[in-house]
Specification:
about 700 residues; alpha/beta; six-stranded antiparallel beta sheet; five-stranded mixed beta sheet; 21 helices; 18 strands
């Protein structure tokens, strides 16, 4: 058998085996078999022709014919197998695996898993995973915040959670300082942690200010394209894109939570929802801390009020007794001075006693003011005029190395107040500032401004919502240490020596300031740090209504004095020394005086002959019948009797109540004899008319 015949025979058997295999397994096997048989017949005809021709060809051409016949046979077989592959069964798909033969199903189950889906199909899955991660981080943050020991720890945990979850370069929390209209960095992650305490403008020239003013989220895709929205700190934090959301509060935003990334277009809506959730947690934490601080301040104010009230009652009682003693000293000194030669040593000594008594009277008046026993005479007062007087006065009292000046930010500021007491407030604050100055000197600034206190702000200060005049005294002295800051308004507590100043004070100045301001329904706020001076802010209610004008001066009322002869005076006081001194003093002015130490005995005498007296002068605090009760009884007996009431301590009756009873005059002890005589003349004249 020739080589061509052997090759043809092998091809025939191979094609036959292929046909049998296809017929057994594939549904198109018969078609494939027919194609293979047709190819074999063609191959056989080509082989026969080549074999017949090879004997006629020269030897060199026989090899060519053989190779050509093999090539044609190979092409035909290749085409047949291509048809087999195209028409054969495909691999069963995933839904059809249950219908595939058991062997094929087992092979499919053992086959390794398919490769990941393309990027377009992966994006929804990545979004879901990111959202799940954010929700898990938010839940964990909420649990940690509830267990945190302080607000600072909670804020630090929040900013680090935002930076870690969003995988950004930094995050920060800015607290809104309402009075200064600024944003103060309270906590930061990344490079922002290097700028804690820095204040930024809350204006709309940054994305932080826009978020605060609009109270909604702000996303900046590229800060390089919007440089006007870039806050001052972000260039140092290497930020390219940023997001800011508002930390909501009960009545106003509490601040802003921000995050920034080094690449542009970094933040999405899902990120904004996550950051807002963190901001809501921060809001709840800050409100809780705010409520706790309000409760603490309320308890402190209650304790302070109780302490000051107790001290006020004690000091008021002491002041009453001191006034009685001082009244006797002043009156008897005046009587002795009248009987002395004006140029004698005794007269000079007596005048020194009167001077000391006047100083003691001023000190007792301060004690009464602190104890809220003083009765302010309220009028419409222009603050700037009082400030001008105080500044001029203090320039002469302060050392030369201490400079004092005023700053007026609210012209024509007026309040309804007692001008004398307001003057005293400023003098005491400036004197206190002078005591706090170092030996090298310093500055004192007295400023006038206005302020509107919201409900929460007013509640923090113990005031009512509304507009207030802000009267401030700022100094550059030693400052007030935190350990004594709560005691500076206590009577006779002086912070001068503690602060390091060699200039000592009496310790009554700030106590008097507190009493006066509290009586005017205001508040005194103190801001001070050791070595950085102190600032006292006095809030006084601003009123547009005019107050009643003050009464005319004593000189005007007593310009025309009636004669003292034939004016009969009934004087009632439980202090024997005062009764004796008043009888002598008023008697020296020509009055006929009847003195009594018992209020009930005085009532009996007056009831026996109501027209035996022209004027009744009495003390308020007496053991049997107090002054106002005795006045009621006397007026019921004789309704036109002029009554002058004197006291050194009035804690139950007001001038308005006395006027309603019918009391003509109301005087504070100690009294000079000349002054008392003028008042008695005025009362007698009013009764005559």
């Amino acid at each position: 058998m020739s080589e061509l015949e052997l090759a043809s025979e092998l091809m025939r058997w191979a094609a036959l085996a292929c046909v049998l295999y296809q017929v057994r397994r594939w549904p198109h096997g018969w078609t494939v078999g027919l194609l293979v048989l047709t190819s074999l017949l063609l191959i056989e005809q080509v082989g026969v022709r080549a074999f017949a021709l090879q004997s006629e060809l020269p030897p060199s051409a026989r090899l060519v014919y053989r190779l050509g016949s093999f090539a044609i046979s190979a092409l035909l077989l290749g085409g047949a197998f291509a048809c087999v592959r195209a028409l054969g069964p495909r691999r069963p798909s995933v839904p059809d695996r249950e219908q595939a033969p058991p062997r094929a199903r087992d092979e499919a189950e053992r086959r390794p898993p398919s490769k990941p889906t393309p990027l377009a199909a992966e994006e929804p899955n990545q979004t879901l995973r990111a959202r799940a991660r954010q929700q898990e981080a938010l839940a964990n943050l909420g649990r940690r915040i509830l267990a945190s020991a302080s607000l600072g720890e909670a804020l630090d945990d929040a900013v680090h959670t935002v930076a870690r979850t969003l995988r950004v370069s930094g995050s920060s929390i800015f607290e809104f300082a309402f009075h200064r209209r600024s944003l103060v960095l309270r906590s930061g992650a990344g490079r922002m942690s290097d700028y804690l305490g820095v204040a930024l403008s809350a204006g709309r020239d940054s994305y932080l200010g826009q978020a605060l003013s609009q109270e909604q989220r702000v996303i900046v895709s590229d800060l390089d394209e919007a440089p006007l929205l870039r806050p001052q700190l972000l260039p140092y934090a290497q930020a390219r894109s940023a997001i800011a959301v508002v930390i909501p509060g009960r009545d106003r935003p509490l601040g802003v939570l921000a995050a920034h990334a080094a690449e542009a277009s970094r933040f999405t809506d899902e990120d904004a929802h996550f950051i807002q959730g963190v901001a809501n947690l921060i809001s709840a934490t800050m409100e809780q801390e705010r409520t706790r601080a309000e409760l603490d301040r309320g308890r402190e104010r209650a304790l302070q009020a109780q302490k000051l009230q107790a001290l006020g009652r004690l000091s008021g009682g002491i002041a009453h007794d001191l006034n009685n003693v001082l009244h006797a000293i002043v009156g008897n000194t005046e009587l002795a001075l009248r009987r002395s030669n004006e140029d004698s040593v005794a007269a000079n000594n007596l005048r020194q006693v009167l001077t000391a008594a006047q100083r003691a009277r001023a000190l007792i008046q301060q004690v009464l003011t602190f104890s809220l026993q003083g009765r302010p005479e309220r009028t419409r007062v222009e603050i700037e005029s009082i400030v001008d007087e105080v500044v001029v006065l203090m320039r002469g009292c302060l050392p030369k190395d201490v400079r004092i000046y005023k700053t007026v930010l609210l012209p024509s500021a007026t309040v309804v107040a007692d001008s004398t007491q307001l003057y005293q407030v400023l003098v005491n604050l400036c004197t206190n500032a002078g005591h706090a100055m170092p030996e090298s000197g310093g500055e004192i600034e007295v400023s006038i401004d206005g302020a509107y206190l919201s409900a929460d702000e007013a509640r923090d200060l113990g005031l009512e919502e509304g507009r207030y005049i802000l009267l401030s005294v700022r100094d550059t002295g030693h400052g007030i240490p935190s350990e004594i800051r709560d005691r500076i308004f206590d009577p006779f507590f002086s912070a001068s020596g503690v602060a390091g100043s060699a200039r000592e004070g009496t310790g009554m100045g700030l106590a008097v300031v507190h009493g006066i301001v509290d009586a005017h329904h205001g508040h005194v706020r103190v801001e001070s740090d050791p070595g950085e001076g102190a600032r006292f802010d006095v809030f006084l209610p601003q009123s547009e209504e005019s107050a009643p004008e003050s009464t005319a001066s004593e000189a005007q009322l007593s310009s025309s004095r009636p004669a003292s002869d034939d004016v009969r005076v009934l004087f009632v006081d439980d202090e024997p020394a005062l009764v004796l001194m008043t009888e002598q003093g008023l008697g020296g002015h020509g009055f006929e005086v009847t003195g009594m130490q018992s209020s009930t005995r005085a009532l009996e005498v007056f009831r026996q002959d109501p027209f035996a007296f022209d004027v009744v002068v009495m003390d308020q605090n007496m053991p049997e019948l107090c002054g106002d009760a005795l006045a009621k009884e006397l007026i019921q007996i004789r309704h036109d009797i002029p009554i002058v009431l004197c006291t050194g301590y009035a804690n139950e009756v007001t001038p308005e109540e006395l006027q309603a009873i019918g009391v003509r005059e109301y005087l504070n002890k100690p009294l000079a004899i000349d002054h008392l005589a003028n008042v008695v003349r005025r009362a007698a004249r009013s009764a005559a008319h």
